[in-house]
TrEMBL record:
Gene Ontology CC annotations of this record: cytoplasm
Keyword Oxidoreductase found: yes
InterPro entries: GTP-CH-I_C/QueF, NADPH_dep_7-cyano-7-deazaG_red, QueF_type1
HAMAP family in the cross-refs: QueF_type1
Protein source organism: Staphylococcus nepalensis
Keyword Oxidoreductase among record annotations: yes
UniProt protein name: NADPH-dependent 7-cyano-7-deazaguanine reductase QueF
Keywords: Cytoplasm, NADP, Oxidoreductase, Queuosine biosynthesis
GO molecular function term, any single one: oxidoreductase activity, acting on other nitrogenous compounds as donors, with NAD or NADP as acceptor
Domain of life: Bacteria
Gene Ontology biological-process annotations: tRNA queuosine(34) biosynthetic process
Length: 72
């Protein structure tokens, strides 16, 4: 894992990111979202996430759904 300027101590509380024992839950679980302190709080950030190959199962039919997701 590339640490991008963070020490091992900065990352030691992240237990889910990079963990290969994925549990796929169909219920909303905010406890699986891990966070870390912003080391540069005086800076403004723009975060953009593109997922061009998002797939999920339709909760009604069980058939696959495909999409592209953009989060800004």
């Amino acid at each position: 894992m590339s640490q991008q300027g963070r020490s091992k101590e900065d990352l030691e509380d992240l237990t889910l990111l990079g963990n290969q024992n994925n549990q796929y839950d169909f219920n909303y679980r905010p406890d699986v979202l891990e966070s870390f302190d912003n080391k540069h709080q005086g800076r403004d950030y723009f975060v953009k996430f593109n997922c061009p190959e998002f797939t999920s199962l339709c909760p009604i039919t069980g058939q696959p759904d495909f999409a592209t997701i953009y989060i800004s």
